């Protein structure tokens, strides 16, 4: 493996230590990327009770797959790509058992929402509605939209994460924005 710090943003020794199963190195990787992965997964799958499980699955996949990392892209890009793929895989599986998840989420929300703060409840309801609208957009467009609008990634980075040309990313982003604006206007949320 030839991993250069200039290209990947991390040093070769750190990546090699992770690839050899060094627990301290993997702990460092976990601490460095946990918050970003949680954000990506939350934005892709929406506010569900499964968030922690999906994030854990991402780290299990990173641990199992890091030995295949060759340094062709930045380590962060490789990790974000894997995070998006695991989250999308979760969505595909969840659609098969959607009725159960909706019931489960409702019960979880009822138990965890503070009952004395109406604004927070309304905010969560609006967020839930936005995720429902996002869920109606085709996955390829939704993923690009989420990575750009909610995660703040630029078009080039999204191109690397999802593995498509930048012009495809731009097109999907344009159409996703147009679709979301129409859906938000129809739902009178603008």
Helical content (DSSP H or I, runs of 4+): over 70%
Beta-strand content estimate: under 5%
State the CATH class of the largest domain.
Mainly Alpha
Radius of gyration computed on alpha carbons: 18 Å
Distance, first to last CA: 50 Å
Largest sheet: none
- CATH architectural type of the largest domain: Orthogonal Bundle
Gross morphology: globular
Regions with little confidence, pLDDT below 50 for 5+ residues: 1-8, 98-118
Structural commentary:
The longest helix has 23 residues, at 23-45. This protein has 10 helices and no strands. It folds into 2 domains: 1-101, Orthogonal Bundle (Rna Polymerase Sigma Factor, Chain: A), CATH 1.10.1740.10; 116-190, Orthogonal Bundle (Arc Repressor Mutant, subunit A). Residues 1-8 and 98-118 have low confidence and may be disordered. It has 190 residues and is mostly helical.
């Amino acid at each position: 493996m030839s991993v250069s710090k200039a290209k990947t943003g991390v040093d070769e020794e750190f990546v090699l230590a992770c690839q050899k199963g060094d627990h301290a190195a993997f702990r460092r990787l976990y601490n460095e990327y946990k918050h970003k992965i949680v954000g990506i997964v939350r934005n892709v799958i929406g506010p569900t009770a499964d968030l922690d499980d999906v994030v854990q699955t991402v780290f299990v996949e990173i641990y199992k797959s890091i030995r295949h990392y060759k340094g062709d892209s930045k380590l962060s890009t490789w990790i974000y790509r894997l995070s998006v793929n695991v989250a999308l895989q979760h969505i595909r599986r969840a659609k098969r058992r959607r009725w159960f998840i909706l019931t489960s989420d409702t019960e979880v929300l009822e138990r965890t929402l503070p009952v004395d703060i109406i604004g927070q409840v309304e905010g969560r309801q609006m967020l839930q509605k936005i995720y429902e609208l996002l869920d109606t957009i085709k996955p390829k467009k939704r993923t690009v939209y989420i990575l750009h609008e909610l995660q703040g990634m630029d078009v080039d980075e999204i191109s690397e994460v999802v593995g498509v040309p930048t012009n495809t990313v731009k097109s999907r982003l344009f159409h996703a924005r147009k679709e979301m604006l129409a859906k938000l206007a129809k739902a009178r949320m603008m």
